[in-house]
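Sat 14:20. Reprocessing the chain from the morning session after the first attempt stalled halfway. Input below, unchanged.
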Amino acid sequence: MNSDQPLPREVKVIDTASLIRLEERACELSLNQRLDPAWVMANAAPDGAHYVWPALWNSLSHRPDMPRQLRCELLITLRAGDRVMSLLDVLPDDFTPLPRVTSRDDGMRVSELLDRAPSVREWLLREDGGSSDRLP
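Finished this time. Tokens:
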């Protein structure tokens, strides 16, 4: 995928192993938006479906060798069934082969869930009674 193209307008659905791989890749590349893969491994539902939806193009001006990334909204299904929202920077070449949501209704449902889901930070603060000790 050429990063000069318009922003992709498709929702991708990924399993937990794929989510962890994307988070590990973002960490390896020191991309701006990512979660600690260990946190994802500990909290994401092992058999859960997670969704990534491009929100904007992101560039690292201080690293001109790094191609633009897709800054994606990320909907994570947690072990207890809750869903949380985060952001994840993904290289276009890593985004393109991911399986896409095939129906418009499913895409609309994911969009609604993203609008209502608390952020990872909000969820952790609620779970910990306001303590930020476990923030990833």
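The chain is about 35% helix and 20% strand.
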